[in-house]
Every structure is written in C-alpha cells, then in structure tokens.
C-alpha cells in the first residue's frame, strides 16, 4: 500500500502514519456503497436520490388504482374466452380439465355479474344449455341420453346454480332455461311437486299436469298384436318388452341429477330477483302460448302454473307484474275457440290469485275487477267451467268476504254466482265484441262495467215504477213474459185507477180476461246448469247470509236477487234446466284432465282435444241419481235463507241507518222506513218464497206455504200502510193464486187441493187482518172483486169437495 502511493503527493510521499491509519481502516472496516447499505443510511440516501430525480422530468408520474381497466379488458376478451372454454369442455375427456373449464365459466359469470353485463351472462347460459343435451334430443331418448352423459349433468347443475346465484342480470337466457324446463317436463324428469297443481274440485285438492300413458295399440285386436310381434326382429321384440337395465339406470341417474339441480328454486327464489329480471322471466313463460305454431296444451299449462306460482311468490310487489298476468289470463280465457284443460287451468289460476291477493289492499280492487274476465267468456265455456268456479268462489268468499266492500265488486261476485249456479247468461255489457282483428286483452277500464249507469235490475218492480206507468200496458217490466200476461186472468189495481169508476171495473171483469203485469219470477232466461255448481253456490250464499257482518248495504239487494234466481233454477226439481240440458253435453270435470296421446302432428290448434269432447258418463249418471235429493235440499236451504233475511231485514237496515247517521256519511242515504223495507227487502223476499209455493214437489210446496204465512203475519209487517198491503196482494198473493190454478202436479191431485185450500185461507187471513187500512183505498172495490173472482175460480178448480166446502166458509168469515 505504501509502495503504491510513493511519490504521488506532488513528488513527495504521504505521511506514513496517515497511510497506516487509512490502510488499517480499510482493512478493518469494509467500504459499502449506499445502495448496499441498510437501515437509516440507506433510507437517507434513497430519499436524497429521489429528491434529485423529482426535480427533473422523471418526477412527473400517474397513479392508477388497481382494476381500472378490468372492465375494458373483460369486454375485449370474454368472447374468445367463452369460445375457448366451450371448446375445451366439449372436446376434453379429462375430469380435471372439465372442472377447470367449468371453473372458468363460473369466473366469467362472476365478472359479468359484478359489472352487470347481461349480454355476457345470457351468452354463458345459452352456451351451457347446449351442453345439457336437453334441447337437442327427442323426448323418447332424453332420459337415457341425459342420464348417461356426465358432461350434461355438470352443465345442467352449472346452469341452474348460475341462474340461482346471478339471476338478477339474466335476460334473454331465461328463454333457454324455460325451454330446458319444458324438456324435463315432457320427459317426466321433474319432481312431483312441480307437476302437481292446486284444484278446487278434485277430492285431493291437487291434480297432475302430465297425461296418463295410454297404450298406442289399445284399439288393435289380440291376433293383430301377436302377428306384429312375430314379424319383429329380436332387437325390436326386446324393445317392446320394456326398458333395459341400462336405460333404467340412466333414467335414475337423470332423476338424481335433476334433484340436485333443484329446479323448483327458480320459483321460490324468484322473490329475490330484480324487477327487470323477474319481468323477463315472466315474458319467457308467457311466450309459451297458444299463438305459437308448435303449440302444445300441456306445455302451456305447465308454464301457466309456473307463472301463477311466481306471481304468488312475489305478492309483495305484485302491482308491478299484475298487468302482464291479467292480460295472459284474459288471452287464454277469452280467445280460446273451445273449452279445454288449458282454459280450465286459467280459470282456476285466476281464482287462486284472487283468493291469495285479496288480503292486499293495494291490489284487491284490481283483482276483483279482473274476475269479470270470467263473465266475458263465451256462455257455453262459462257453463263448462261452472264446477271449478263454484268451488273457487266458495273458497274466496269463505276466506275474503270481509275484504270486499265496493258495490261493484259485490255485483261481479253475485253475477258470477247467478251465471254458474243457474245458467243465466252473462250481462251483454260485459261480453266483448269479437271481430276478426281482435287485439286480445282489454284494460281494466274496458273490463269495468258500472251497473249504476243503467237501472239496477233487482228482479222486481218498485211501487213507484208501477204506479207511475201503470196505465201504459205496452211498457211492461222486463220480468213479464207474454205467457204471464195472457194467462194471468186478473186485474191490476193501483192508485192511478182513481179516475176509473168502479163500474168500469165491473164491466171489464166480464168482457175481457183479467190481466196483471206482475210475475213471481225474476224473468231471466235460465239456461242449463250443473247441479253440483248450484249446490255450491247456494252454500256460498248461505255463508254470506248467516254471518250478519257479510250482509252490507252494497250487497243486500244483489243477494236477494241471486236467491230468487236460484229459487227459479231449483223450481220443480230443476226441470227447466233438465229440459234444456237434454240435448246438451254435460261437463265432467274429472275427465278434463291431461291424458297421453300420440303426437302425430306437432302443429295443433287451440282446441279441445278428443278426450275433452267425449266426456265419461259415470259422473252424469251419479248426478242424475242424486238430482231429486239435491234440488230438494237446495230449495229448503233457499227458503230458510229468504226467511232469515226477511226476519232480520228491519234490524239490519235500522243498524245501517244509525251507523250512517253516527258517522255522518254523505253517500247514498240508507232509508229504514217501512216503505223502503217493503221495496228493497220484504216484497222481493215474499215473491221468492211464493215462487216455491207452486213447486211440483209437495213437501217443498207445503214448507214454502208455511214460511209465507209466517212471513206475512210477522210483527214487522204490521207497520205497512194500505198502499203497501195492496201491493202485497198484487205482487205476491194474486200471482201465487194464479199459478196454483194451473195443473202443476198432475200426479198429486190431493196435495194440490190442500195447497189451494191453504193459499185461499192465507188470502182470507191477510185480507181480514188488514181490512181497516184497505177500506181507505179508492181501489178497494176492484181489489175485493179480484178476491171474489179468485174464490169463484178456486171453488170450481178441484174435483173433490174440499175447496167447495172451505171457500164459502172463508167468505162467510170475511163478510161477517
């Protein structure tokens, strides 16, 4: 070290001690560069260097958060990535590679869900659905092919798992999932809970949507079957013996896979979907409709049931999906050419929705208005659906009667009861005008029909209407028929007859037949009806009447009118309906079920299948055997209901009037005076009871007469004035006496004699009890002459001595 430094200090040497110190310092303490230092020395050095660099152009730099370009990168790469994953999944046989490709699909799904890329997720679902083999195989081979394909299992599980997890961003992909579900349904691979649906009529409360298997060679003879078997090859013969062990095992594997997929979660988890995704799912289900060229009734029914369940799962936000649901039901019910199982499921579905949704105030009004879809159906189809509707309405009223408040809603329900229970045709105002270019669904405003816009048909004429237009014989009430006018044979008396002298009445009595414009019937054209439907409707009415809370000012008159229509339908054991139904085909709900038939042609029209056109006659025979007992029970029930309403009417109306006065309600004022009670309650109820007094069945007739006598002599009716009692003779007693003059029951001559005697005695009692107020009437003479005329006719009506002896006795009591 010294030698190397000799003479370098300006030709001289350095101080030797200094060189020695430097040497030993270097030797003992190694020189380390700043970059190689650690601790504070290095930090200070690095910071000093950074400050120097920062002062130059190098000091300008950008800070970019992680993931800023992930979206753009994924948007550029997802297409090739999905294509590569699909190729690897399709071609690879290695289990590890297959699982890695599936993992790639799931990661792509997660990224697309994170960024809300619906088109990417739809593409993923569509790609995976192709690998399930559900859309490419025929139904016959599907269980075997799907069950024996492990890749198809993995793809199916992945599709359903991704749909459950990221369904919020699924849009167009719902169509592929629905198509896969339909394939599983056709191949009978879905769990039992998905193919069993609620039913009102079936004793178990459920029916299966899948058709029963029927042998294709059922119509062939035994010899022909044997010859065909002999001509088949060995392979074909083995195929006829049934599925092989391999096929059975494949189907078991397929069922196990579908069980793990848990397709029912699509329905139960739909309540967590975003609204837009939920609406797309509903659109996919609605698209499977009769408008499609490849229409299949079972497929439509299955999708309809899924749709109904999804709507019920989403009842918390049902207002957003109700319009689409209602339009679809309208389309199925109104546009169908003939009655079929799909129409039945639509009718049942509408009623199921109503039962579940009426508790929700925000939607209840729209749901009740939508029930008018049933009244817009063709009358023949409504009659075929009457059994289901009757049972459905009964369930609806039992569970939701307290939630129905509007008069229009009660009008809808009672009109439905009338149509399905007694065969009345729906109101023409609710029947859609059908044109060639009919667009289909109507809006709620189009469906709505306001009975108040026209006069409400109560089924009877008020006294004010009678006395105002009494002299206009040409302007008769709609309930009057020509037969009633011609055959009545007695005189109408009213207060406007004051100007006509009593002698004019005398002269007319002898010269022309006596005419009365009143009829005890409602005067509606009753078509054929189902006996069980009528019984269920009467049961529904009984439920409403028995509970005073359900009888309201909005439904009282409607309830009375409906009871009277049912009385007319059950008259004489429903003979009017039986006559009209003689040539018509009765509907058997049990046969309106899905039965397997060969799909020879995929293009099928929206019509009733042959199984639905040819109903089994077993239920008809059972019904015919029980008809007399059924109608007998119905008539007695209706009598009891009318008597109950008659005795409670005054109390009910008084409580309503008091409540209205207490609450200071400014709506239509409720009158509780005797005149209002007579018009709205007592008169129509007495007419209904009197209608059964001329029933051909003796027991019903006698029971009705007992109820009529009890009702006419009840204490509340003593408050009626002379005009109202005159109206009672004109509207109740005289029409009854006229009908009893007819040969109602030829086989029961003795019973008819007794009935006529009881009726004439009742007339005498009522006349004597209210003689004082009746004497004040200017038309009393005409009234008395009419009574005498009836007494004369009754004396000569019978063949025995019963009436000729009893009537003079009654007249003697009346005169004395």
UniProtKB/TrEMBL annotation:
Gene3D superfamilies per UniProt: Arf Nucleotide-binding Site Opener,domain 2 (1.10.1000.11)
Entry's Gene Ontology cellular component terms: cytoplasm; endomembrane system
Residues annotated as domain SEC7: 1-31
Sequence segments annotated as region (Disordered): 427-455, 576-626
InterPro entries: GBF1-like_TPR, Sec7_C_sf, Sec7_dom, Sec7_dom_sf
Domain GBF1-like tetratricopeptide repeats, residue spans: 678-816
GO terms (BP aspect): regulation of ARF protein signal transduction; vesicle-mediated transport
Keywords: Membrane, Transmembrane, Transmembrane helix
Composition bias type Basic residues, residue spans: 592-615
GO molecular function terms attached to this record: guanyl-nucleotide exchange factor activity
Residues passing through the membrane, by range: 766-787
Segments of skewed composition (Polar residues): 432-454
SUPFAM superfamilies in the cross-refs: Sec7 domain (SSF48425)
Domain of life the protein comes from: Eukaryota
Pfam families: Sec7, TPR_28
Biased composition annotated in UniProt, kind: Basic and acidic residues: 577-591
Name of protein: Uncharacterized protein
Organism: Micrurus spixii (Amazon coral snake)
């Amino acid at each position: 070290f010294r030698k190397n430094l000799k003479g370098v200090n300006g030709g001289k040497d350095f101080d030797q001690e200094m060189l020695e110190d430097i040497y030993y310092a270097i030797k003992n303490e190694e020189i380390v560069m700043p970059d190689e230092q650690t601790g504070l020395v290095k930090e200070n050095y690095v910071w000093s260097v950074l400050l120097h660099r920062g002062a130059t152009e190098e000091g300008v730099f950008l800070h970019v958060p992680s993931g800023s370009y992930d979206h753009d990168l994924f948007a550029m790469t997802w297409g090739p990535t999905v294509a590569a994953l699909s190729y690897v999944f399709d071609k690879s046989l290695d289990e590890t590679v297959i699982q890695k490709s599936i993992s790639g699909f799931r990661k792509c799904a997660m990224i697309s869900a994170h960024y809300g890329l619906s088109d990417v997720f739809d593409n993923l679902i569509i790609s995976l659905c192709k690998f399930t083999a559900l859309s490419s195989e025929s139904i016959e081979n599907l269980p075997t092919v799907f069950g024996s394909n492990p890749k198809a299992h993995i793809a199916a599980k992945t599709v359903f798992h991704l749909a459950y997890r990221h369904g919020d961003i699924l849009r167009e992909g719902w169509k592929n999932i629905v198509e896969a579900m339909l394939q599983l349904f056709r191949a009978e691979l879905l769990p039992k809970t998905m193919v069993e649906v609620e039913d009102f009529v079936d004793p178990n409360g459920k029916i299966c949507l899948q058709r029963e298997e029927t042998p294709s060679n059922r119509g062939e003879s035994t010899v022909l079957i044997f010859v065909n078997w002999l001509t088949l090859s060995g392979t074909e013969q083995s195929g006829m013996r049934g599925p092989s062990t391999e096929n059975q095992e494949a189907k078991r594997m397929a069922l196990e896979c579908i069980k793990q997929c848990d397709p029912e979660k699509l329905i139960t988890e739909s309540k967590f979907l975003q609204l837009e995704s939920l609406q797309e799912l509903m659109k996919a289900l609605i698209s499977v409709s009769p408008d499609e060229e490849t229409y299949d009734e079972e497929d439509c029914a299955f999708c309809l049931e899924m749709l109904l369940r999804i709507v019920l799962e989403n009842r918390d936000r049902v207002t957003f999906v109700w319009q689409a649901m209602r339009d679809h039901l309208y389309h199925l019910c109104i546009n169908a050419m003939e009655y079929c199982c799909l129409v039945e499921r639509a009718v049942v579905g509408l009623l199921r929705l109503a039962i579940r949704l009426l508790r929700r105030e925000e939607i209840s009004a729209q749901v009740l208005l939508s029930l008018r879809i049933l009244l817009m159906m063709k009358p023949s189809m409504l009659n075929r659906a009457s059994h289901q509707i009757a049972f459905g309405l009964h369930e609806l009223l039992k569970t939701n009667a307290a939630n129905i408040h509007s008069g229009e809603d009660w009008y809808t329900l009672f009109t439905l009861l009338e149509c399905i229970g007694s065969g009345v045709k729906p109101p023409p105002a609710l029947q859609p005008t059908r044109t060639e270019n009919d667009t289909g669904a109507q809006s709620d405003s189009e469906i709505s029909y306001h009975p108040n816009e026209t006069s409400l048909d109560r089924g009877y004429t008020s006294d004010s209407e009678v006395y105002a237009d009494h002299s206009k014989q040409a302007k008769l009430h709609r309930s009057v028929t020509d037969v009633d006018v011609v055959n009545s044979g007695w005189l109408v008396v009213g207060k406007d007859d004051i100007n006509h002298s009593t002698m004019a009445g005398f002269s007319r009595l002898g010269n022309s037949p006596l005419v009365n414009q009143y009829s005890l019937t409602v005067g509606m054209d009753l078509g054929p009806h189902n006996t069980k439907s009528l019984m269920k409707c009467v049961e529904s009415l009984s439920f409403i009447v028995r509970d005073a809370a359900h009888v309201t000012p909005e439904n009282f008159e409607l309830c009375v009118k409906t009871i009277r229509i049912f009385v007319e339908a059950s008259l004489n054991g429903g003979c009017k309906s039986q006559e009209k139904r003689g040539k018509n085909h009765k509907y058997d709900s049990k046969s309106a079920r899905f039965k397997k038939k060969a799909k020879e042609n995929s293009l099928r029209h929206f019509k009733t299948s042959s199984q639905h056109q040819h109903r089994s006659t077993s239920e008809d025979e059972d019904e015919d055997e029980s008809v007399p007992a059924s109608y007998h029970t119905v008539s007695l029930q209706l009598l009891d209901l009318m008597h109950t309403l008659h005795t409670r009417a005054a109390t009910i109306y008084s409580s309503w009037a008091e409540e209205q006065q207490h609450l200071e309600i400014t709506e239509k004022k409720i009158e509780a005076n005797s005149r209002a009670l007579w018009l709205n309650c007592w008169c129509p109820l007495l007419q209904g009871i009197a209608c059964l007094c001329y029933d051909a069945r003796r027991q019903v007739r006698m029971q009705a007469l007992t109820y009529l006598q009890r009702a006419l002599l009840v204490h509340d009716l003593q408050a009626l004035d002379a005009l109202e009692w005159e109206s009672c003779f004109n509207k109740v007693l005289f029409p009854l006496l006229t009908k009893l003059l007819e040969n109602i029951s030829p086989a029961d001559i003795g019973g008819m004699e007794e009935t006529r005697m009881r009726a004439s005695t009742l007339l005498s009692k009522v006349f004597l009890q209210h003689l004082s107020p009746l004497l004040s009437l200017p038309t009393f003479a005409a009234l008395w002459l009419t009574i005498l005329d009836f007494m004369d006719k009754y004396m000569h009506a019978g063949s025995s001595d019963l009436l000729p002896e009893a009537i003079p006795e009654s007249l003697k009591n009346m005169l004395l």
